[in-house]
Design brief:
This protein has 171 residues and is mainly alpha-helical. The protein has one domain (22-163): Arc Repressor Mutant, subunit A. 61% of the residues lie in helices and 8% in strands. It has helices at residues 22-50, 54-65, 73-80, 84-97, 118-138, 145-164; strands at residues 70-72, 100-104, 112-116. A hairpin with a 7-residue loop joins β2 and β3. The protein starts with 21 loop residues before the first helix and ends in a 7-residue tail after the last helix.
């Protein structure tokens, strides 16, 4: 019996899959567990302090870095790895809070822009120090400078590989 049981087929020849060895499994599970823990801690800080989620913070941060604090909806969705409908749902709450506005593009009337409002920018400015403190507390301060460099290098290698080889997403 394979480790994942009968429920998985995924179109992969299961006899040819190179299973993770102990070191690979430790790295994989460690990444998932740490990501989940860090994300939950940062999310709690943002919800408790500002009534926004980590995903909402990502929207505000991306818009704050864009020219004119505006992005085409399709570009923002791509940056956040969201479907168009996923971005719409995410923005609905931020629009209700007055942190983001939807605006027609002056350059192309078929395009809708997501725009960071002054209230959204003020919320981001207030939340950013708390968020950075959380990132330091739950991740950065638990690592040596060498480990931080190694972690950054590992993530850079994965991003470069995936950028060069889109098939790596399904491989």
């Amino acid at each position: 019996m394979l480790p994942h049981g009968d429920w998985y087929s995924g179109g992969v020849d299961q006899t040819s899959v190179p299973w993770l060895d102990d070191e690979e499994m430790r790295a994989w599970r460690g990444m998932i567990e740490v990501f989940t823990d860090v994300h939950a801690s940062l999310e709690a800080d943002l919800i408790d302090g500002f009534g926004i989620t980590e995903g909402d913070y990502g929207v505000l941060a991306n818009l704050s870095e864009a020219p004119g604090r505006r992005l085409r909806m399709c570009d923002l969705a791509a940056r956040l790895h969201l479907s168009p409908s996923g971005l719409t749902r995410r923005l609905d709450g931020l629009v209700k809070l007055g942190y983001v506005a939807r605006e027609p593009s002056e350059a192309d009337r078929r395009v809708t822009l997501a725009a960071l409002t002054d209230a959204g920018y003020a919320t981001l400015e207030a939340a950013a120090p708390i968020h950075v403190d959380g990132v330091r507390r739950v991740l950065i301060d638990n690592l040596t400078r060498t480990q931080i460099r190694q972690l950054g290098a590992a993530f850079d290698a994965v991003r470069r590989r995936r950028a060069r080889d889109p098939a790596a997403e399904s491989a």
